Amino acid sequence: MNPIFRITALAAVSLAITGCSSLGSTTAAEREAASLARYEAAAGEAVPSFRFFRIDGFTTLGDHVVAVWAGPRQAYLLTVEEPCLELRWSVSIGVTSSLNSVYANFDRIQTRDGSCRIRSIRPIDVAALRESEKVARQAKVEVVERES
């Protein structure tokens, strides 16, 4: 996909989501859905595996989706078997791997109370994600300023 088209599409999705959710007070579920939509829009096609040496951070996006950061410019959207009920509330996670590689349909996300098999791995275009988050923040500020 053309990078300019992708960024434009991400911006449009972010504006639409932010616009709809900014009309009234947003609930946690609405904010989570908007965040998930931004991550999914920035994620590429599924890959069978990825290499990493450590997890630099993670963002839970519901009961079955988590973004794992393997570096400042390297992130992956992992979808796990449902339900993975503890994933949403985990303050820390682990990821199983074989020789520093994580494989879909084999490795697992580990939480304090259990683990869930990784069903799909999608690399995230980090630059596009950051741009869509920037657009969403700017749109939210504009809506708040208009309401005054």
Q: How do the strands and helices of this protein lay out in sequence?
A:
Elements: H1 3-22, H2 28-42, E1 49-51, E2 57-60, E3 65-71, E4 74-80, E5 94-95, E6 101-103, E7 108-111, E8 114-124, H3 126-147
Antiparallel strand pairs: 1-6, 2-3, 3-4, 4-8, 5-7, 7-8
Strand order of the largest sheet: 2-3-4-8-7-5
| Helical coverage, percent range | 25-40%
Number of domains: 2
Report the sheet-strand fraction. 25-35%
For this entry, give a set of tags.
6-stranded antiparallel beta sheet, 148 residues, two-stranded antiparallel sheet, 3 helices
Can you describe what's shown?
It is a single chain. This protein is of the alpha+beta class and 148 residues long. The protein has 2 domains: 1-43 and 126-148; 44-124, no CATH class. It is built from 3 helices and 8 strands; from the N terminus they run ααββββββββα. It has a 6-stranded antiparallel sheet. A two-stranded antiparallel ribbon has the order 1-6. A hairpin with a 4-residue loop joins β2 (57-60) and β3.
What is the compact description of this entry?
It is built from three helices and eight strands; from the N terminus they run ααββββββββα. It has 148 residues and is of the alpha+beta class.
